[in-house]
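retry 2 of 3: previous attempt timed out while embedding magnesium ion. Reduced batch size to 1 and resubmitted. Inputs unchanged:
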Amino acid sequence: MKTIRLQVNQTDIDRAGEMIRRGGLVAFPTETVYGLGADATNEAAVRSVYAAKGRPSDNPMIVHIADMEQLDELVTEVPSVARAMMEIYWPGPITFVLKKSDVVPMVTTGGLDTIAIRMPSNRTARRLIRAARRPIAAPSANLSGRPSPTTALDVLEDMDGRIDAVIMGDTCDVGIESTVCDLTGDVPTILRPGYITAEMIQAKLGIDVVYDRSLFISPENADFHPKSPGMKYKHYSPKANVIIVRGGDTEMRATRAYSILSLALSGDKNAKVVDYKGDSREAAHDFFARLRELDREGVDTIIVTGLPEEGFGFSVMNRMLKAAGYNVVDSDKM
Ligand code: AMP
Ligand code: MG
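retry 2 succeeded.
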């Protein structure tokens, strides 16, 4: 299959919408990462997304909408707390899990009776959804297990020849995937941390929001039972060995990272340090793209300084720890 490069103009966006309506696969930019879109109501199209990514079929997709009118047909009910959150955070980088309606095929939700929905703020994403006149199921546009793509070229690195088209949009602003917030239980629960944090929602709405316990447990632990199916898979991994330096302060982490670097270099490793100096925003924006770049350079050992683990830093560290397969060194232990 030849993958067509589409530009951000109305002609090409209309063409992309048409491709989606006919059951095709089109990658497109969002404010979080690039998505690989298909008509969420078309079973065959959704199956081909799983195939193109090599994604396990029990890992459900997020369904993207552009207007509130699209929400009602996808779900059985919208609780008032959900309305309140959508009012504040949509369009934006947060996904809500609600009870699904029969319009949505089971393949889209990985066999679950709930559905994850987001209204992205990226203008190109919303223009595409409107042009398609369909809700668009879109996981990240990478091969399953690889770092998520934050540029159109990163999408092509994994997907050229496997999908119908890529919209060649801008670099993603946030750089890590959306917050996933489950609203089907008694208390809103963050299943996947992202740019919008539990603390932010609590402060704004004055309600309790909790993090799913599995976010604090590493996967080797017998107690690890994530509610979000995707969280159990290996994720975001480059070919290189990744080490995260955790704990202490910014300076301690950097010092420790460079001492690991000297050791690795003297052991003939092609090693590099990535130091975000505690800046979570910058780290999120850069991290996945950097992993891909270092892979292309043939670096075999990537030593990354960790972030303060609260607020957005906690979300970015979640991705870093997964990318490293929980390969962690404490900054204050030798
Ligand atoms: P990705 O498409 O790679 O951003 O992954 C989407 C993530 O959203 C998956 O890893 C799922 O775990 C999560 N997700 C999607 N639908 C649901 C749902 N109905 N319930 C819980 N988590 C979901
Ligand atoms: Mg993904």
